[in-house]
Amino acid sequence: MSSLTARHISKSYPTPAEDLVILEDVDLSLEAGQNAAIIGPSGSGKSTLLQILGVLDRPSGGTLMIRGQDPFSLTETEQAKFRNDHIGFVFQDHHLLPQWNVLENTLLPGLAQGRPDAALRERAHYLLERVGLQDRLHHLPSQLSGGERERVAVARALIRRPLLVLADEPTGNLDEENAEKVSELLLAMPREENAILIVVTHSMDLARKMERCFELKRGRLQPKTF
Question: Helix (H, G, I), strand (E, B), or coil: what is residue 195?
Fold first, then answer.
């Protein structure tokens, strides 16, 4: 069994006329250490699929298995713990807490387990050094560039050693130079951590760098070749 297996995933919403189908019969299987891009036009369901894979939204049909566990069989409280233990998120808009500094934002996923211990703080320092922010530990998000904030988000996503890293348009708000730096980190660090990386993107440059690429068309996920 693959580390991530999605089978026949569907998502639809009822409307007065007929169901609005967003995803239909989506299959996806990835092993630890692999990466993939999902491309498609706006409104094609990319973010919806990412939310389902991240256990933030429940599918209308189909099954999702992550490391042999069906997360949708869990209670909401158990799902929250599952996400925190196994899934890291990198968002286009960062979602950093403005009143917390770089180190504190990186440690945030670990706070669910109580006060961060020495090992977690050491890992945060290591990750922030890897993303080139060792001199920005006590800066607030407002004191960082867009590229620096996105690099904090990458470090935060990896702090709990997740199996699955999900990135939604991670370079969408960045200039070419910062987009290249963030892309390199996204490709290198999850692989080093033996995590699965899935990126939803409009950037063909980023998509071409991934091992595999899929395109969402009319709710269906299809392999994409360049």
Answer: coil
- Whole-angstrom distance, CA of residue 214 vs CA of residue 219: 12
CB atoms within 10 A of CB 130: 17
Cβ burial, residue 1 (10 Å; 0-12/13-18/19+) = exposed
- Write down the pTM of the prediction: 0.92
Residue 123 belongs to domain spanning: 4-223
Give the CATH number of the domain where residue 161 resides: 3.40.50.300
* Residue 53 identity: L
Decide if 127 contacts 159 (C-beta within 8 A): yes
Copy the structure tokens of residue 85. Answer: 């233990």
With bands split at pLDDT 50, 70 and 90, how would you rate the model's confidence at 103? very high
**Those residues with Cβ within 8 angstroms of residue 41's Cβ, 6 or more apart along the chain or in another chain:** none
Orientation of helix 146-158 relative to helix 176-192, angle to 10°: 10
